Every structure is written in structure tokens, then in C-alpha cells.
Amino acid sequence: LAEYWAKRCFASHEPAERLPADLRELCQLQLPQLLALAEGPVLVMYATRAGAYRSSEVAPAQALGFYQAGMTLYFHLDKRRPEIHRWLQALAADLRQPVDALRFSVFATDRGGITQCHFDINHNFTLQVRGRKRWKIAENHFAIRPLERFTVSDRVPEILRLHTVEEPPRCLPPDAQSIELFPGSMVYVPRGDWHEVEALEESLSFNFSFSPVTWLSLVLPAIRHCLAAHEEWREEATGAWGGLAERAEARRRLAALIARLPQDLTSLAAEDLLPASRHAVDRGPFEGDARFRRNQMATFGIERTKGSAEPHTVVVITVPGGPSAGLRLSPPALAACRVILQKTGPFSIGELAATVPSLEPAALSQLLAQLVEIGFVQRIEADRPG
Ligand SMILES: [Fe+2]
Questions:
Q1: 261 three-state secondary structure
Q2: How far is the CA of 148 from the centre of ligand 1 (A)?
Q3: pLDDT tens digit string along 255-283?
Q4: How far apart are CA 201 and CA 181, in angstroms?
Q5: How many angstroms is it from 207 CA to the middle of ligand 1?
Q6: What is the secondary structure of 292-354 as a DSSP string?
Q7: So what's the pLDDT on residue 385?
Q8: 144 with 192: CB under 8 angstroms?
């Protein structure tokens, strides 16, 4: 991983018989059977007479006809199916990536089918299932760590213009390496590497692709979350489309908001976005000196349940990037949650117990265990002397 992940391509050529048994079973399926496992539309790919590379979406039930007419098919397999999900989970765990970012797709190409030179924003693992394919792969000096896919016959997307002012190459760079894949071969192409692929025979391959989780994609929703907590940022951008004087006033207002960004983003904390407790939740019981901090980005709402015979109050807590949790709490536990909500720094269970004396120590410890589990608070390791 340290040597190749997100850095350079890698190929291995193992006989197909050495693949894990569950994957080997999937490899034995024919195209109509794989189409029956498709999730979402099938992408049909073709080249126009002018040589441009295009694709259209069709329903899985209609896709086979296009394949028989010589066009390439690309589709995702349904992740909810246990045989697919099991495999994706194992791969994601091995690569230390979130399973949600991973897709299992099928590429079916007729002999001579060419995928024009392009780069993807995903990390791709391709397993050759049937037939032979020639991959030509080159490093990308045009757009480093791209945020959008690009094919040489297309216009350069706007976001890529932020990466580079160079003109894009119109064909594969001359230093490309050529790799031939046979059934059982696997190639890893990191995000952004140029590649051009030709089916030397009728070919079927599986593609496992990871959408990259970048620092940007991790932090942007959290920034929105932090700023949306301030009513000033929720104000209408009045005057932004007005006359000269109104725009000048709007600009002053915006400049003042931008100036207070560092202060408004102080609640943005790495501990909240990447909690230590994601894998090992500390469930207590906690002693009086156990220390905690609140997830500064977690939201907290009180709702009344509807429809049940006996309506009751539920506290709904949402942590960015995580599911919402609804907790049915006693009045003293609710009071403790309100106290925690006011906390901006670390606090101990003893301090909390002093502010909510009506909550029994065991119940308080249990409440904190629940709040740690859903990510509303995190346990802080006590400083150990020596
Ligand atoms: Fe690709």
C-alpha cells in the first residue's frame, strides 16, 4: 500500500484458479446473468464518426442488444447483494478505505473495442475475467490529483483549469507502459493516471473503483455545518445583484463575514471529523474523573414522537458524516444533555454529576456510554503521571 496506493500502477498475473472462491463464482457468470445483477442504468459506449468518445445510458434489460451490435457496456453490480457486499467489504478493509466509496462494476467489450486515452478520478482495480486486453498507462503531469475525469477528445472541465494552465495532451504520452492482461490478471491504476485500453479479444473484466476521499471532501460539509450555525451566514446576500452602490455595500458586508471566518470555524476540529472512537467505542462504566469533550459539530434536537399510543420526547443527535440517533431520555438525562451541549472544552463526569444531581451516577455513566457510541461526545484519555 505504501509503495503503490495513489502513487503508481501495479499489475499482477495470477492464474484465474487462484482467485478466492466467491470471486471465482462471479467470474463464471455470463453477461446476461451479470446484467441481472446490475444496479442502475448500463452505460453503452461508442465512438462517433468524427472520432469522439461518447456514452449513453440504457436499461439493463435492453443492454445486451447494444453489446451484440459491437458496443462496450459498463455497469455497476448491486452492492446490496450479499455475495457482492462481502467481497467489497473485504477489499475496503484491506485498503483501509470506506466501503461506501467502493463500486464493483463490469466492463464488457467486443474484440477491437478501444477505450480512448483518459484519466479517472477514481482508483481502479481491474480484474481480467475473460479474453485479453492491452492497457497502456502513463503518469499524469497535466493534472495532478484531478477532481474530474477527462478524455483527450473532450473539453477541459472548469475544475481542472484550477489545476493547470497547460494545454492537455491529445493522445497518450509517449512514456506510457504497455501491460497485457489475461484471465486472472489484475491491474491497479491510481487516480489520475492516463490510460488507453484495447480489447485484443472479446473481453469481460471486473472493475473495483474507489472514489477518493480527499481532505477537501472531508472538510467541506463540516465547514458548511459550522458556518450554518451562525445566523449572519444564513442572511440573504442582499444587494449582491443590485446597482453599483448596493453592490459596494454587499461587498463590505461579505468582506466583514470573510474576516470573521477563522473565528466562526473554531468549532471545526480534526477530532470530530476523525474520531478516535470510530473503531473501538469505550462503553464504560466511567469513574468520576473520566474526561470527555463534546463533538462541536454534532446537532441536537428535541422531537415528540407521533402516532404512538403514548407520545414521548426523543432527542435526535446528528454527527456530520454519521447517522442520526434518536434517544428516549428521562428528564434528568435530558438536563445532562443540555449541559453537555453548552460545553466547548473538556469536562469530567464528576463536574457533570454536580450540575445534574438528580441523575444517579450509574445512569449518568450509562448516558455517557450511549453518547460516546453515537459520537456526540468523545472520551479523552487522562494524563498519566510519569
Ligand atoms: Fe478509466
A1: helix
A2: 12
A3: 999 999 999 998 788 877 876 654 456 67
A4: 11
A5: 9
A6: EEE-TT-EEEEEE--SSSS--EEEEEE-TTS-EEEEE--HHHHHHHHHHHH--S-EEHHHHHH
A7: 44
A8: yes
239-254 residue pLDDT tens: 999 999 999 999 999 9
Residues 6+ apart with CB under 8 A from 195: 115, 117, 118, 119, 135, 136, 137, 138, 189
Q: What is the DSSP letter of 375?
A: T
For residue 181, how far is its CA from the centre of ligand 1 (angstroms)? 15
Fill in the DSSP letter of residue 277: G
* Separation between Cα atoms, residue 273 and residue 361, nearest integer Å: 30
Mean pLDDT calculated for residue range 326-341:
87
For residue 191, the CA-to-ligand 1 centroid distance in Å is: 9
Q: How far apart are CA 185 and CA 12, in angstroms?
A: 6
pLDDT of residue 370: 87
User: Around Cβ 330, how many Cβ atoms within 10 Å?
Assistant: 14
The values of phi and psi at residue 47, to 5°, are: -105, 140
Query: Which residues, 6 or more positions from 248, have their beta carbon under 8 angstroms from its beta carbon?
Result: none
Ligand 1 centroid – CA 258 distance (Å): 39
Q: Is the pLDDT of residue 107 over 90?
A: yes
Strands 194-199 and 291-294: unpaired
Instruction: Quote the ligand 1 centre to 197 CA distance (angstroms).
Output: 8
Amino acid at 32: P
Grid cell, residue 95, equals 485498503
Q: How far is the CA of 146 from the centre of ligand 1 (A)?
A: 13
Does pLDDT of 216 surpass 50? yes
Please provide the average confidence, as pLDDT, over all residues in the chain: 87
Distance 120 CA to ligand 1 centre (A): 5
Cα 213 to averaged position of ligand 1 atoms, centre (Å)? 18
Confidence of residue 309 (pLDDT cuts 50, 70, 90): low
H/E run at residue 246: helix 244-259
- pLDDT tens, 21-42? 888 888 999 999 999 999 999 9
Question: What is the 29 CA–ligand 1 centroid distance (Å)?
Answer: 23
* Centre of ligand 1 from the C-alpha of residue 151, in Å: 9
